[in-house]
Amino acid sequence: FSSVVLVMIAMFSVQAGGSLAKLLFPLVGAEGATSLRMTVGAVALTVVLKPWRMSITAANFVPLLIYGIVLGGMNFLFYQAIQTLPLGVAVAFEFTGPLAVALFASRRWIDLLWVGFALAGLVMLFPVGINTTDIDLVGSLFALGAGFCWAIYIIAGKKTGMSNGAGSVAIGCTIAAVIYAPIGFVQAGTSIFSWQVLPLALGVGILSTALPYALEMKALTKLPARTFGTLMSLEPAIGAMAGWLILSEALTITQWTAIGAIVCASLGATLTINTSK
């Protein structure tokens, strides 16, 4: 039970961090918020996980590099998306990445049901008709791009984690910071170093990166993968709740229904994947 609580806290932490990041946008822009999250997260994870104890070779560096690139890309694109999308909607689009990974691992007829739920949710969210102009097309594409990076992140993370252990998270985040942080520092200029920004930056880095990663790693040692995946399937709904509570982002009934359909698809895919042939 305690491990389940840790995962739930981690998910609420990530989404609360996303809400705080959105409050940073008027001060430093989405790029600046990404830079601050990556930098603070990399420093915090390095202190906690001590990655200098790892042995990095030519063979395991390539997976680490890919892991870091997609980790940074996932965060960069997601922050671009929530400039114009409600947090819950952006998370729902982004969650198509891990959902696709789960579905591609299975080949049974029941998986068509989960694909149907996911597609129904996306159709309700995606701006394809005149009545959906409140959902920004460019923001939706950014969120889907973040989802693609998340899918690669899962695959690369599994490979590099098996080779390098928990320290790979800190190294991956450091690689992401080295690649993507300069973009935000250039875009935001000197405003990124203001005292007004610092408390929010620390909150974003710790809530979005350091705290949830640490909690998830601890929970994963005790929880079956299936249980962990089922809990993570709730993240789009938690994102919507965080956006509503912290940012006052009210969603329409259609948008809540769409998020619910994607959550159902994620739950179903996770609960049935262990019995796939």
Overview of this structure, please?
The model has no long low-confidence stretch (mean pLDDT 82). By secondary structure, the chain is mainly α. The protein contains eleven helices and no strands. It has helices at 2-49, 58-81, 87-94, 96-104, 110-125, 137-164, 167-188, 198-220, 225-232, 235-247, 253-273.
Number of strands: 0
The quaternary state of the protein chains shown equals single chain
- Shape field: globular
- Strand/helix succession: HHHHHHHHHHH
Helix share bin? over 70%
Number of helices: 11
Average pLDDT taken over every residue = 82
Structural class: mainly alpha
Radius of gyration: 18 Å
In brief:
The protein has helices at residues 2-49, 58-81, 87-94, 96-104, 110-125, 137-164, 167-188, 198-220, 225-232, 235-247, 253-273. It has 277 residues and is mainly alpha-helical.
Task: Please render the helix and strand layout as text.
Layout lengths: L1 H48 L8 H24 L5 H8 L1 H9 L5 H16 L11 H28 L2 H22 L9 H23 L4 H8 L2 H13 L5 H21 L4
Helix pairs in contact: 1-2, 1-7, 1-8, 1-10, 2-6, 2-7, 3-6, 3-10, 4-6, 4-11, 5-11, 9-11, 10-11
